[in-house]
Amino acid sequence: MNILYDERVDGALPKVDKTALLAELRERLPDLDILHQEEDLKPYECDGLSAYRTTPMLVVLPERVEQVEQLLKLCHEHQVPVVARGAGTGLSGGALPLEQGILLVMARFNRILEVNPSGRFARVQPGVRNLAISQAAAPFDLYYAPDPSSQIACSIGGNVAENAGGVHCLKYGLTVHNLLKVDILTVEGERLTLGSDALDSPGFDLLALFTGSEGMLGVITEVTVKLLPKPQVAKVLLAAFDSVEKAGRAVGDIIAAGIIPGGLEMMDNLAIRAAEDFIHAGYPVDAEAILLCELDGVEADVHDDCERVRQVLETAGATEVRLARDEAERVRFWAGRKNAFPAVGRISPDYYCMDGTIPRRELPGVLRGITELSAEYGLRVANVFHAGDGNMHPLILFDANQPGELERAEALGGKILELCVAVGGSITGEHGVGREKINQMCAQFNADELTLFHGVKAAFDATGLLNPGKNIPTLHRCAEFGAMHVHHGQMPFPELERF
Amino acid sequence: MNILYDERVDGALPKVDKTALLAELRERLPDLDILHQEEDLKPYECDGLSAYRTTPMLVVLPERVEQVEQLLKLCHEHQVPVVARGAGTGLSGGALPLEQGILLVMARFNRILEVNPSGRFARVQPGVRNLAISQAAAPFDLYYAPDPSSQIACSIGGNVAENAGGVHCLKYGLTVHNLLKVDILTVEGERLTLGSDALDSPGFDLLALFTGSEGMLGVITEVTVKLLPKPQVAKVLLAAFDSVEKAGRAVGDIIAAGIIPGGLEMMDNLAIRAAEDFIHAGYPVDAEAILLCELDGVEADVHDDCERVRQVLETAGATEVRLARDEAERVRFWAGRKNAFPAVGRISPDYYCMDGTIPRRELPGVLRGITELSAEYGLRVANVFHAGDGNMHPLILFDANQPGELERAEALGGKILELCVAVGGSITGEHGVGREKINQMCAQFNADELTLFHGVKAAFDATGLLNPGKNIPTLHRCAEFGAMHVHHGQMPFPELERF
């Protein structure tokens, strides 16, 4: 079974007769909105990772769960692969369509079904935008904590599929920590509920298993998220450093002091200058690195914590520590950080966004390693990251019009991810594996582990029709990619030993 | 494959020739400690749930991972079932042995391999006691957060297998939230590492899947836990109420005020009096219910939070709110709560400890329901629970020597669990399913969901040799038990409608 689904990935997808399928879809689902003409399909050829593009065979835009149910039954019957897609803001090609498959767009499932203030949860359809949940909960002084930078556009179904994070996940957790229940349709069109209204559920933890499974295990039809009370007060400290390593060590010092900031973010000089030029956040452009540390909670606590963090930062060698004077400045400080990616886009024709996660204590060494690799490959790297949880987003600047630069950028990106794995980290933090990092998964996991993944996949989807070619590589692919497995840092690459 | 493993449960276990197996074990693992005589096996016939007893065929006490590896390979070869056991403090019969199986006692794996203060983790063998980890981390002002009441005796391997909680899990999470990595041996004796040193891991979340899987997916050989900085200060408020429902509502009010207590526990009058007689904690014995609310963190924050909680409690109708004057009184307040089970054991010949979890907002209604059921069945029920996270531990008092009382207690327990499921809760919070609640799983899950569980089990252990008969019931068993599925409260039992 696994082999069948492996082959779908690697070019051996079964041929589907588009005309016949379209006719049958129209007959069996007469009110389903179907796109099938080239110009209508074009907008769906990629998600937020525009480097990979495929025109889907058909795009369907259902509005009711029954339609999705019938569609899946029909696809299962005819063995047609299905890729589900939310808002398409994903950065790893997780919603990349298939030439021989159906792209199932869940965008019209955009209703908030229930906001329950006493139960502190919201029941929403998968196409609801992340920020819209917090907006609907605001009248009750509640909000939904995970806040990916794309929160204005990204949908909760995609957040669940990718286990999205955000600048506040150090304190409030990833998507998986903020879910109660997910209703899904299996590949065979059966309805299932994973999780429960209670905080723990017996049996295997299928809700955690499903979260972050990138559309390979089922199609999400409803999500019940936890809501949290809005913090009374949030304050942000900005600290400047004359070296990225000092800033990296200060991150560990804050955590070691027993403080859990609402957000703890780091930017290096290149990112600082790009963001400052774009947003005018008031960043110190001469600093080698800045930290943004948000403290939230009740007034008195936040006041005390700000003082403690200030002391820690000064002891760690900060050249300047500034408390945002008012809410406007606080928002400006964050606007610089949240717009760092487009800001870097302004100073370079192209950039390649990485997403590695490392143990926090490895931050100073990995930053030094990235600097050395950057020099070696002759490409600038801007560092922007969720420092508190060790989730790095190095942005590799390049110009695709210069011969060889794209290849060099990709090679440098691969080296950075291998460095992350070598120090015990992983090849992705919050952006997912998708299509982009499928080869790097061969570095992260060995054959036994991959076989286990395939076994779990088979328990949900033995035919492999759901989002083939993403997330979990075939053993065959890894063999072709070269046996570069560096499991949990136990077998560092020779060229990485210098770090 | 699933059927084979189902049958192992229901009496169709393959016959194993004990003498031949013993001879082969001795030959292939000459330095493995093996118990095989009746009097040596007797101490292992049950875990903390003494109502279920089985004499294991053989008990093995390995000391090295290689021995476990070889043992599993041998058992796999001969298709001998294996039940792994830690300290045996579990309360749901998860480590109940098999007459035709090997009991694999991991108690001798009791070494703390590493305490890493900068990385904030500890690497330990599975037989290390929960409390011993915090003791080893204490010199660095760190500790391991989950603290089941049995923490002085229970082992971390068992904690992972059962996803153990404790009085502090409202704020600090269950075992699953405090793990980085688990090293396991598969049923075939292959070594795997689940999770990583980083906070997120790509691919499916097998670490979360494995945690709480009750020994069905693999044998734990090493655990890497997160360590947290010890709170500078911890204070406890005791609030008395003249009704359990008022106390139940006060729990919701505290959470709604945006406070996350370190612990938030509730006891009713019967439990209060039993604990007071036993421990002399200073509880108000005339109160219908008390809440214990612990606030921890830095001095100034804790002081402010105590005042806010006091106001909330008074507004909620508390007849008395008392702050523990000093550390000695704080410890005494907790000692009463932590010894509530043995305290109840002193006032009743027998008691039956339940472990249901419900949405927090359902607390008042479920408490009323339990009172009515208690009257109907003519058995006293003492309520002691982790109120903050809706994890209830009703203790049903009975006398096994009175004809019919045991049966009545079991029937009442079943009704209480069904009530939990009917309001959207679950049949277990932190004690696990084990052997005890295998039938109630038929109420919690439908056939499609159980099939998915079996599929996941098969991905790890297709032959079903690991801890058969626990945690996940067969479809056959559920059919025999009667189709009592009340999925997520959508189909409440007619007799529960009055609640």
Kindly describe this structure.
2 copies of one chain form a homodimer. Chain A is α+β, with helices and mostly antiparallel strands and 499 residues long. Chain A has helices at residues 2-9, 18-28, 38-41, 65-78, 130-137, 156-162, 169-172, 206-210, 244-256, 269-279, 299-315, 327-338, 340-347, 363-377, 405-422, 441-444, 447-460, 475-481, and strands spanning 33-35, 58-61, 82-85, 102-105, 112-116, 121-124, 142-143, 179-185, 191-195, 219-226, 228-229, 233-241, 263-268, 289-297, 320-323, 350-353, 356-357, 381-386, 391-398. The first copy, chain A, folds into 4 domains: 2-105, Uridine Diphospho-n-acetylenolpyruvylglucosamine Reductase, domain 2, CATH 3.30.43; 112-229, Uridine Diphospho-n-acetylenolpyruvylglucosamine Reductase, domain 3 (2-Layer Sandwich), CATH 3.30.465; 233-343, Alpha-Beta Plaits (2-Layer Sandwich), CATH 3.30.70; 347-496, Alpha-Beta Plaits. Chain A has 18 helices and 19 strands. In chain A, strands 12, 13, 14, 15, 16, 17, 18 and 19 form an 8-stranded antiparallel β-sheet that branches. In chain A, strands 5-6-10-8-9 form a 5-stranded antiparallel β-sheet. The longest helix of chain A is centred in the C-terminal third of the chain and has 18 residues, at 405-422. The radius of gyration of chain A is 23 Å and the shape is globular. Mean pLDDT of chain A is 89; it is low at 1-11 and 483-499. Chains A, B: Keywords: FAD, Flavoprotein, Oxidoreductase. Chains A, B: Residues 52-230 form the FAD-binding PCMH-type domain. Chains A, B: It is an enzyme of class 1 (oxidoreductase). Chains A, B: Its cofactor is FAD.
